[in-house]
Amino acid sequence: MYKLQSVIGSVILIIFLYACTPSQPTTKTNVLNKPADSETDVKGNKRMSAWEMQNYHKNLPKAAPPAERKTSGRETKKEIKKEMNPTVAVIKPEDPVGQTSVNNNIVTSASFAYRSKEYYKFITDSIQAVSAKAAYYQIADSMMRMMTQLPINSKNPAIDLTQWYTTPNFNIRKPNYVMLHHTAQTTAEQTLYTFSIQRTGVSAHYVVSRDGTVYQMLNDYMKAWHSGIGRWGSVNDMNSCSLGIEIDNNGSEPFSDAQINGLLKLLTYLKKEYQIPQENFIGHSDYAPSRKNDPSKYFPWKKLADAGFGYWYDTLNLKDPPADFNPIMALRIIGYDTKKPMDAIKAFKLHFIQNDVSSTLSDYDKKILYNVYLKY
Ligand SMILES: [Zn+2]
After folding, report:
1. What is the pLDDT of residue 112?
2. What's the rounded Cα separation, in Å, for the pair 174 and 100?
3. What is the pLDDT of residue 335?
4. Measured in angstroms, how far is the CA atom of residue 15 from the centroid of ligand 1?
5. How many angstroms separate the alpha carbon of residue 179 from the centre of ligand 1?
């Protein structure tokens, strides 16, 4: 009976909406209007409305203080900010393209002192409850408003503003690359904290902790600030077309099996969901060879390639390249920016040779390069 009432209700609502809809919309959609509760995603799960998202943070539980801190757990925004100040480094943003960023580390500062994992968890939970979640939904909302702008607001001088047409045949652009990083930090909690504060100007879609737990910080369709200046093939704004994944690792230690298994689970989902080509799983150092060295030489690229993420050479089938083989051209075809050939060679070696990152190619290195190049 309930279902029947609901169907009749839906039919009446559709007829009503159809009758009331003007032939051309004259105002922008206010995405903060509380929508009907029946909004669901393609899989039938209830989708959080923009209104609910905007108000989500108001219902969040208060963060609990860590054992080592004596605090009421009800710190104000001002108190949290005051506490953050002595240890937070000034970090240049990884976006927009055209600005430089710090070398190799998310956080670089002589005055930086690592606090405990519990401290970062506490302060991050507080920041999330006080400001980060609200800011997230506010920014997402402004993005949604931007996407629903009418042509009459267009700044484009090339279009005819006297009449306009819309098409119902569209959806949203999807990510087509995955860029992998190591955090160069001490714990995932520290990285979650770094990405929770606005003035760091850096972010990623996902953070993979050492025990394999994966945290998502940004919707896959949004642009994170993780790549900065660089070039891969013809792409020079990787933030716009990639998903950024930060792997908790200090840069001079192996990656645990649990962590790589967590990463592989995530990559398997992303590859299938967005149909990302195998060759489009790359490292930050591949994209920005002169600035970045992450992920480090300890990163198991072969294991990833065996699972279908990125390519690796055929270890049992290495042949000498032909006499006219041009290594720089091969690097370029793979995707490396060869404007600075020595940097491109170093980045290639960090990825494929790993134990030697000099800027020259030995005969063995050339065999590997030739073998990889044939896969592109
Ligand atoms: Zn990086």
Report:
1. 63
2. 26
3. 98
4. 52
5. 8
Centroid of ligand 1 to alpha carbon of 350 (angstroms) = 14
- Give me ligand 1 centre to Cα 104, in Å: 7
Q: Distance, CA 201 to ligand 1 centroid (Å)?
A: 13
The answer as to CATH 3.40.80.10 being correct for domain 51-149+176-310 is yes
Helices (H) and strands (E) in the chain, counts: 12, 5
Q: How far is the CA of 343 from the centre of ligand 1 (A)?
A: 16
pTM exceeds 0.70 for this model: yes
**Amino acid 52: pLDDT:** 44
pLDDT of residue 92: 58
* Ranges for all domains in the chain classified under CATH 3.40.80.10: 51-149+176-310
Average pLDDT for runs of 10 along the chain of length 376: 48 40 32 32 42 42 42 42 43 51 40 84 96 95 88 77 87 97 96 96 97 98 97 98 98 97 98 98 97 97 98 93 97 98 98 96 97 96
Find the 361 Cα to ligand 1 centroid distance in Å: 25
Secondary structure (3-state) at 232: strand
Give 353 Cα–ligand 1 centroid separation in angstroms: 19
CA dihedral 359, 309, 339, 370 (to 10 degrees): 60
Query: Distance, CA 295 to ligand 1 centroid (Å)?
Result: 7
61 CB contacts (<8 Å, ≥6 apart)? 129
- 281-318 exposure pattern, b = at least 16 Cβ within 10 A, e = fewer: bbbbbbbbbbbbbbbbbebbbebbbebebbbbbeeeee
Please tell me the distance between residue 82's alpha carbon and the centre of ligand 1 in angstroms. 28
pLDDT of residue 139: 95
Give 309 Cα–ligand 1 centroid separation in angstroms: 18
Ligand 1 centre distance from Cα of residue 226 (Å): 6
Sheet of strand 281-283: strand arrangement: 214-216, 206-208, 242-247, 177-182, 281-283
| Distance from the alpha carbon of residue 227 to the mean position of ligand 1, in angstroms | 7
